[in-house]
Amino acid sequence: MTTKKRSWAEPYKIKMVEPLRMTTREQRERALAEAGWNTFLLRSEDVYIDLLTDSGTNAMSDRQWAGLMVGDEAYAGSANYYHLEAAVQKYYGYKHLVPTHQGRGAENILSKCLIKPGDYVPGNMYFTTTRAHQELAGATFVDIIIDEAHDPGCEHPFKGNVDLAKLDALVTRVGAAKVPYVSLAATVNMAGGQPISMKNVRAVREYCEPKGIKVILDATRAIENAWFVKQREKGYADKSIAEILHEMCSLTDGATMSGKKDLLVNIGGFLALNDDDVFEEARNLVVLYEGLHTYGGLAGRDMEAMAIGIQEAVSEDHIRARIGQVEYVGEGLMKAGIPIVHPIGGHAIFLDAAAFLPHLPQTAFPAQTLAGELYLESGIRAMERGIVSAGRNKETGDHNYPKLELVRLTFPRRVYTQAHCDVTVESVIELFDRRHAIKGLKMNYEPKYLRFFQARFDRLA
Ligand code: F0G
């Protein structure tokens, strides 16, 4: 008997293409020098395969493009706002919606509504903009993720989980009155796109509720998290992605959302809340920072595309293919012995730069170096997620020294083909083969906020 092979393929076909520009090594040397060795400062036309981020880089469907044509560009009461509100209520289950231009707009408003100076905000690791807004509102961020999340080799299936003992230690130390909410991310971007289990979210809820501490979800990639719950958590194999998403949100009091990820759009976000009073405050603030509460900095058409995107994002075929593509690249790299964060995350492969370039000290910015070298090698653009992203300690002024020194290869949704994935794997392998010759960097310009976006570097001699 012969076993027939049946290959997996993308659940869509292509009807419009964007030509890519191929570059030579000399052109890339020049471009990277001009960009101060910071991949954020490269021009996109100098990039071949852009794995900088999955944020706003998604390919919209024909239905979403059609949705743009029914944009109701009214200043107040746009029909598209009501479509989006209905979709958020149906799939996420929250009562109130405040649209924002993107995730950080929602984070700004939420932080201003809930945080008083001197408060503490615990979170399952941090995200750059989320923590920055918490700190700007006067809070101190406290990491309460399980220790396993800081170990790139550990195979824990839910490395995004909260360590309840760490949460309890904080609450005991500062008092529940100084902890307005737990900032819960699903999946955890900085840990490598690692999910949180439903059981853990429920435990956090049960701990917080009697103490009057809110639980706020960063729902940016919660649909991807739902896929992992379905695959890995007992009792969820037969539930739909939509059911799992709804159940997870029901254990929280509200959510900030960057629609630019899960929701398959190029711009958009929202803040969703159950509490009437907090909503009232948020609806006041959105007018100051984003726009009227029925558009929040978005065009009507953008809200329509996001409303349609929610329905497409929870489709099982879509999410299987989306995460399947990331797994395909991860497995290719693992087979070649490339050090990456385990298990493979939802939106990205994270190269372990500390293991890739063990001869570089953290102060020579190994992940920043590796991202630059990958660009020189192949024209592939990746992102540093290490000491540069971690910024400086507010008190001491020294760098924060994160345990993870990573380079993120992030996959836009529905954009690249399997052949692009093969080129990516081959390029990383070639770089790995000559890793010993790679030299580090020194920083020669450092901006005050979110330095990784605009910092500049020189290659060490
Ligand atoms: N939360 C998470 C988990 C994110 O990954 C991001 C953005 C945000 C919030 C902020 O949303 O960009 O719409 O303001 N992450 C992007 C990334 C930038 O590349 O990972 P935003």
Mean pLDDT: 96
Q: Biggest sheet, in brief?
A: 5 strands, mixed
In CATH, the topology of the largest domain is named Aspartate Aminotransferase, domain 2
Strand order of the largest sheet: 2-8-7-6-5
What is the highest CATH level, the class of the largest domain?
Alpha Beta
- Total number of β-strand segments? 14
> What's the number of helices?
16
Structural topology:
Layout: H1 25-34, E1 49-50, H2 62-69, H3 79-91, E2 96-100, H4 103-114, E3 120-123, H5 128-136, E4 140-143, H6 164-174, E5 181-185, H7 198-208, E6 214-218, H8 222-232, H9 241-250, E7 254-258, E8 269-273, H10 276-289, H11 300-313, H12 316-335, E9 348-352, H13 353-356, H14 366-378, E10 380-381, E11 383-385, H15 387-390, E12 406-410, H16 418-433, E13 441-445, E14 456-459
Parallel strand pairs: 1-10, 3-4, 5-6, 6-7
Antiparallel strand pairs: 2-8, 7-8, 9-12, 11-12, 13-14
The structure holds ligand F0G.
Q: What would your notes on this structure say?
A:
There is one protein chain. With 461 residues, the chain is of the alpha/beta class. It has 2 domains: 174 residues, Aspartate Aminotransferase, domain 1, CATH 3.90.1150.10; 252 residues, Type I PLP-dependent aspartate aminotransferase-like (Major domain) (Aspartate Aminotransferase, domain 2, 3-Layer(aba) Sandwich). The protein has 16 helices and 14 strands. The strands form 5 sheets. A 5-stranded mixed β-sheet has the order 2-8-7-6-5, with helices on both faces. The protein has a 3-stranded antiparallel β-sheet with strand order 9-12-11. The relative contact order is 0.16. The model has no long low-confidence stretch (mean pLDDT 96). It binds ligand F0G. The site of ligand F0G has 15 residues, from helix 4 and helix 5.
